[in-house]
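Fold it.
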Amino acid sequence: MLTMYPACFYKEDDGYSVIFPDLNYLATCGKDLNEAMEMAIDCLAGYAFDCQLEGEKLPKASKIESIDAKAIGKELDPEASCEDCFVNMVSVEVESYAREHFDKPIRKSLTIPAWLNKTATELGINFSQTLKEALMDKIYPKAQINKMK
């Protein structure tokens, strides 16, 4: 499912700052507009994915026309000029983004007793899958893992 939120983009001396007013002023930045948009997508995906893991509901997104980037900029920094700012929708398909960026497999070494290796191999146990399941059980309650499948 596509997740979309309005974001305020502020031109800075060294790039752009990005703020999501609907997400507790979640913020990121980039050295240019292209990188700022990429970082905004990553930031939104990470926030939404974390909410899924924690079983939290995302707040409703505001309509883009209801967001006043200058007013928000002044609220955050009364001294800022906020002349070069705009609001843009940022969207991401969280599930596919998470699979590509957050769920990438990483190779790990494992040391176990020889007898355990022999027995598990004889039983056809998949070491990677078993370790992943054991770690997920330690980190997250079963109910949340089942929601992610």
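The first strand starts at residue 2 and ends at 12.
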